[in-house]
């Protein structure tokens, strides 16, 4: 599907332009997971629906369209990245002991740890079956039938497999960094580039491959995704200090209780003088009740300027993401991708 060369500034509301795509994804997600089914299916539906932001599926759809492909043929691939994402969240909540997800009980809290682990496994293992939907019906050179050409699907499978491994590497590294305020920003950024960035890269690069993008276009969208992933997670780390738990959909105490060295906290540790650093270490070392620790950390983030610095760095990454889109033909799709970068550092959940 070829799009007209439309200047980004000519699209008045890019996110509104994405609404039909989001509606298509939601309809197909609901269709694939009917309410009446066996237990594992029901738990999977609970994890998937009501849907979250569907950001990663949207990225895949718009990346495919940005290189001249996309449309209904890539919907299964777009949903498959959501399954990988949600499966990883189900496992995260088990690992972290979190009882809330998207403003309601997590899968583990509602159904128990065993069913949560199995559900996360099923969602992630099911990715490749969904990703290859229709590939056997497509010709070797064109994607005129049910799905994209098999060679493109194989390329996307490789990207998704790599993303799954990178996600696990990031999770393991997060555990290694837990409680270590001296780990440094470089190691932290490596960790989030793996744990959070993996699925952003999979969505954008996978979409570019499925849409028939050139190597240069694939590289541009991969670079966009890498900066977007950093911006998204940097901003996500700010939410406990800028949003209440109802808005964020998850307890603001989670990072504190788990002693996770998040981006603004590590900036604070680097910027603080010795007395403030000692208070920060005490707050995150279990010396205070979690609620008191959160208040102390918030105060230190404000007084050291770390909160402002973290916002600025997140915004800078979003701007770098948008600059990568300049290597692509301007279109409605690139306008949507640029708007997603802006949204990643302005959202409240």
Automatic annotation (TrEMBL):
Question: What InterPro entries is this protein classified in?
Answer: Isoprenoid_synthase_dom_sf, Polyprenyl_synt, Polyprenyl_synt_CS
Q: Which cofactors does this gene product need?
A: Mg(2+)
Q: GO BP, one example?
A: isoprenoid biosynthetic process
GO terms for molecular function, please?
metal ion binding; prenyltransferase activity
The family database entries (Pfam families) matched by this protein are listed as: polyprenyl_synt
Its lineage opens with: Bacteria, Bacillati, Actinomycetota, Actinomycetes, Kitasatosporales
Metal-binding in keyword set: yes
Q: Which SUPFAM superfamilies match?
A: Terpenoid synthases (SSF48576)
Q: Give TM regions.
A: none
Q: Say which domain of life the source belongs to.
A: Bacteria
What family is this? Belongs to the FPP/GGPP synthase family.
Ordered alphabetically, the record's keywords are:
Magnesium, Metal-binding, Transferase
Stated name of the protein:
Octaprenyl-diphosphate synthase IspB
UniProt key word Transferase:
yes
